[in-house]
């Protein structure tokens, strides 16, 4: 798929980053044979076998072949802990290593974006057709789902009695069953739909980039580390990058499209001279545009991993601790592409309210028939399952900023989890709701016993502290190049994703979200790229 470094150095468009958004852009823009596109990806090809086997995320996250290996700074809200902060470093970006959950969020999320930007093009009713355009839903086309698109959506190929019990217990505390979380109101409980095809991961690289890679007007270069954006005055005219041991430059006739993600996009802007003037001058960087919002407004979903021991119901913990169990799991996947090796990291979801007076669901559960102390460690030897719960709309805001004037020095990532009283209250309330679900009659026969955080934590203060001990990222960083109105000094891009004060440069990825969506963020990022491709094409037509 990747091509040698090109002899030419001038293209119509240069896309920085072959993650979810970059793959969509490469596909859509090269549908016009008169448009010449260069796609630069710092990572490698997606030919590592564990990318494609769903359970392989365990071997991709924390692996320098596929992950940038970022870490957060020590977090006060997490009682001084620092977290691994996985981001995809491979064709497909994080869609090649993530949880594969297909989720759009809630209608109000997008209506809120429209209010924040003054652009009705971001409203739910306007973006729903964009979601449908990409989609290839296993049930075919309906009022809410698309058929024949590049983004495959299927049911999971598994079921677990403990997960079915969670559905029943959630119903007993007022959370109804849901067959579809993607109609604009995701209140309910049910199995997640996933980006898979017959039990194999379906990444943005497979869906969008592979078809486009056959077109002669697309050049894809892997192992291309972009070091700086290039400017003539206030116009971005290209990029400098390093690959195969040599330095290169590439120039764009029309635009440079920055799709490096919520961590790397603001980092590259700052290194290139776009950001807070005071911060850039501190590192000796010439200020091209003083845009203080760059790297601010970081939002992420913090999951609280509650674990319960159980009796009389199977979980994956027991299966993986016997040779026979492992052989059975491997053989099942080899023959049928079903079973535990086809599992997304979380199989069951629920959307609920932390309190009765909350207007719409503000919690998301990711439920798993397994448990472990922390990601990357072996499963517990005792029988247990995990009900992780996250605050969908945190009020805490963090940042991503450079620490040196060179892209090779990773940025400082400071999510500032649980830094507001509201977020600490929601954390306490969400643990209490989990206890109510596990205390429902449906679970009684399995004698659930709380292992994490443990029944000793009871007061709001105790539970907020416990949340700091068991909380971890669910890999949804957004917002660090937020879009908004011109009168908002912290806006980085306008509603058409053009960088403030600069011509020829857009940011197109999860960093432009003004507010995080109420659910998993990968498919909303693909939708953003779909809309961006429309805006770019319209702009090109206007210039013709």
Automatic annotation (TrEMBL):
The lineage of its organism: Bacteria, Pseudomonadati, Pseudomonadota, Betaproteobacteria, Burkholderiales. Belongs to the GMC oxidoreductase family. The keyword Transmembrane does not apply. Residues 88-111, 261-275 form the Glucose-methanol-choline oxidoreductase N-terminal domain. It comes from the Bacteria. Keywords: FAD, Flavoprotein. One of its GO terms (molecular function) is flavin adenine dinucleotide binding. Its cofactor is FAD. This is Choline dehydrogenase. InterPro entries: FAD/NAD-bd_sf (IPR036188), GMC_OxRdtase (IPR012132), GMC_OxRdtase_N (IPR000172), GMC_OxRtase_C (IPR007867). FAD binds at residues 90, 226. It comes from Pandoraea terrae. It holds the Pfam family GMC_oxred_C.
